[in-house]
């Protein structure tokens, strides 16, 4: 497992070494250039000073006895005097013999595998040559460069300790947060505190808190679904069991047939309940992640009206679509289910001979879907509760699961819409008015 502390430590120390190396190289070349200029000047001044001194002392004194002002041992200067009149050569003991120059001034000579920087000057019949090994110059420049790099090398342990301490203190909030999360129970989804956290870490913690919030909502929905499903399935299953027992005890075929009819009705109710529960479960976890498309609401409303007409005709109820052209970005199957549930709900509660209208229209930046009837309506005090799961208004004799409007509400929420209940056709009955932004589904993702 990679370590941020180790990575930062190695990176910073490596950067420091690289910086020191680059500084040393740059210093070396800069020092070498400056030393070359300085030592060339020193060679020239030494040769010119010797030319005047030799003219007054030669041949009485050998050049080996001459004293050169400013000649340090580290410069390793070689002096050679050639007398053209007598073809004789004087030089310091132990120094190499340099070739005679072709002309006065600076030059480069190679003797015994070593390169020499030379300066020659004429003094009457004498030719004075002063030389210096170029390796000496390189050594002086390298020594100067190392003097810069040396303090950096000494600083590396201190920098490493400082980086270790700084990175450790910087990562301490992350480690505290990790320990806090590790101590939590599996069911604890309360937000992590961001107090005292640095800006970089607080952003991560906020993202984790948002994720836990969504996870908590999902788990709560699943728990609620499991609880509701268990509760609601218990009643129809118990009724089915009783009907089977009654059928077994029936003494006549007519009594058995009557029990079987009720048993079939109970099975149909249980099947519808399971179907509605599964639909609700598919919509609960994270329906916003499902793909969306542009829905033409007018053809959709007409299609739902055609599908519901045969069912409504059994109660002599008319279903018609009053649809203006409007478009909505969303999940077409979910929107169809939403309109179908509202229409089916209207068919169930509207008395015989009633009327149902499915309306669609565009209003500015919104689209509106309405399902209206002229049935008994919903009391104002119950209009907020009808969207709760398994809630059914008091006094209704119509069978149902109590999930149809809960599914409608969930679909409306997924598409970032709003829902309101008003009076229906002719001031009677109920009108469910659904309002959506045209790009509601897209913006919700």
UniProtKB/TrEMBL annotation:
It catalyses: ATP + protein L-histidine = ADP + protein N-phospho-L-histidine. It is found in: Membrane. Keywords: ATP-binding, Kinase, Membrane, Nucleotide-binding, Phosphoprotein, Transferase, Transmembrane, Transmembrane helix, Two-component regulatory system. The chain crosses the membrane at residues 152-174. Residues 168-220 form the HAMP domain. GO terms for molecular function: ATP binding; phosphorelay sensor kinase activity. The keyword Ubl conjugation does not apply. Residues 228-440 form the Histidine kinase domain. One of its GO terms (cellular component) is plasma membrane. InterPro entries: 2CSK_N, HAMP_dom, HATPase_C_sf, HATPase_dom, His_kinase_dom, HisK_dim/P_dom, HisK_dim/P_sf, Sig_transdc_His_kin-like_C. It is a multi-pass membrane protein. Its main location: membrane. SMART domains: HATPase_c, HisKA. Its EC number is 2.7.13.3. This is histidine kinase.
């Amino acid at each position: 497992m990679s370590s941020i502390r180790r990575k930062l430590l190695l990176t910073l120390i490596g950067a420091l070494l690289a910086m020191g190396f680059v500084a040393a190289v740059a210093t070396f070349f800069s020092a070498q250039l400056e030393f070359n200029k300085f030592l060339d000047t020193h060679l020239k001044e030494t040769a010119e000073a010797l030319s005047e001194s030799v003219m007054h002392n030669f041949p009485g004194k050998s050049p080996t006895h001459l004293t050169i002002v400013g000649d340090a041992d580290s410069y390793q200067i070689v002096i050679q005097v050639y007398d053209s009149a007598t073809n004789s050569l004087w030089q310091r003991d132990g120094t190499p013999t340099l070739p005679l120059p072709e002309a006065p001034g600076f030059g480069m000579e190679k003797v015994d595998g070593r390169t020499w920087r030379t300066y020659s000057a004429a003094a009457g019949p004498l030719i004075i040559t002063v030389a210096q090994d170029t390796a000496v110059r390189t050594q002086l420049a390298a020594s100067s460069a190392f003097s810069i790099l040396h303090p950096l090398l000494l600083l590396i342990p201190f920098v490493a300790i400082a980086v270790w301490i700084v990175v450790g203190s910087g990562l301490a909030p992350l480690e505290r947060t990790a320990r806090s999360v590790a101590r939590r129970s599996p069911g604890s989804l309360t937000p992590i505190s961001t107090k005292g956290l640095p800006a970089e870490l607080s952003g991560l913690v906020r993202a984790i808190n948002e994720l836990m919030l969504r996870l908590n909502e999902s788990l709560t929905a699943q728990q609620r679904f499991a609880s509701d499903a268990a509760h609601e399935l218990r009643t129809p299953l118990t009724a089915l069991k009783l009907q089977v027992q009654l059928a077994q005890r029936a003494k006549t075929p007519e009594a058995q047939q009557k029990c079987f009819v009720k048993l079939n009705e109970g099975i149909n109710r249980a099947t519808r309940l399971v179907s509605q529960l599964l639909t609700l479960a598919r919509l609960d976890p994270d329906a916003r992640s499902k793909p969306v498309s542009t829905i033409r609401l007018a053809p959709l409303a007409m299609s739902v009206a055609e599908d519901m007409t045969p069912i409504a005709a059994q109660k002599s109820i008319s279903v018609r679509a009053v649809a203006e052209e409007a478009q909505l970005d969303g999940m077409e199957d979910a929107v169809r289910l939403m309109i179908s549930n509202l229409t089916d709900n209207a068919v169930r509660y509207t008395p015989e001979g009633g009327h149902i209208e499915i309306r669609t229209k565009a209003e500015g930046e919104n689209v509106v879907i309405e399902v209206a009837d002229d049935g008994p309506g919903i009391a104002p005090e119950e209009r907020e509760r009808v969207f709760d799961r398994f809630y059914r208004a008091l006094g209704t004799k119509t069978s149902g699961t109590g999930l149809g409007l809960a599914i409608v509400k969930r679909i409306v929420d997924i598409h970032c819409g709003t829902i309101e209940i008003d009076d229906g056709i002719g001031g009677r009955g109920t009108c469910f008015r659904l309002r959506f932004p045209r790009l509601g589904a897209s913006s919700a993702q």
